[in-house]
Amino acid sequence: MIKATNLSHEFDYPLFKNISLEVKAKEKVAIIGVSGSGKSTLLHILSTFLKPNSGEVYLFNENIYSLKEKELINLRKNKTGIIFQFHYLFNGFSAFDNLKVAQILADTKIDETLLKRLNIDNVIHQNIQTLSGGQQQRVSIARVLTKKPKIIFADEPTGNLDRESAFEVMDILEEYCDKNEASLVMVTHDEEIAKKCNTIYKLENYGLHKLTK
Ligand SMILES: Nc1ncnc2c1ncn2[C@@H]1O[C@H](COP(=O)(O)OP(=O)(O)OP(=O)(O)O)[C@@H](O)[C@H]1O
Ligand SMILES: [Mg+2]
Predict the structure, then answer these.
(1) Domain 2-211 in CATH: superfamily?
(2) Model confidence over 107-160: pLDDT tens digits?
(3) What pLDDT, in 10s, does the model give residues 177-189?
(4) Which of 43, 76, 138, 188 has the smallest C-beta neighbourhood within 10 Å, fewest atoms?
(5) 37 lines ligand 1 (CB under 6 A)
(6) Does the Cβ of 147 fall within 6 Å of ligand 1?
(7) Contact call for residues 183 and 150 (beta carbons, < 8 A)
């Protein structure tokens, strides 16, 4: 599903050099590392949003940074879903309207059970600005799952949540991946949450190191 080879990237200073990563269907991967180590940057590279200084990323056997803009947009629309560290919901609209957009674009259904499990069914008609950080985070998760992607990229998806809600979100993501044969690549600083994944990598000393659970 995902194959990344020899990725290197730097901004003002090098973040990582020659890292490679492979993710199979149904596999759940966690990436941990200290703040500023480049986790979000790596996720943006893997998820089509940032071309690395060098190296290649293949999603579904396509070399994504050699695709035409239109093909890239189709890939994002139909096959991948990203939960950003900072939520990009449409402000000024209700949570429900935000889900509706995903539902129309992907021609799917809004899953009422999912809204209940995420505990956002009671606030779904409120304006995004009136929701707490954790509620917005759960709306972002519902929006991404409504699109039915084959790969989910998630940057600290449980960052704003209490333990119980965090583990519920992990259960939901896990069940989604199993049921839809989808993969998950998530960034977290929470080692307990990372352990819910099949594989854990640590971004450290310019490299990506596989940890044994
Ligand atoms: N667009 C950018 N331009 C310049 N520097 C950037 C840019 N994006 C990130 N950086 C720098 O790259 C480094 C890594 O940032 P990144 O957001 O990937 O870290 P992170 O591991 O996700 O951290 P955190 O755990 O705090 O979210 C930081 O020093 C950041 O300032
Ligand atoms: Mg980050």
Answers:
(1) P-loop containing nucleotide triphosphate hydrolases (3.40.50.300)
(2) 999 999 999 999 999 999 999 999 999 999 999 999 999 999 999 999 999 998
(3) 999 999 999 999 9
(4) 76
(5) yes
(6) no
(7) yes
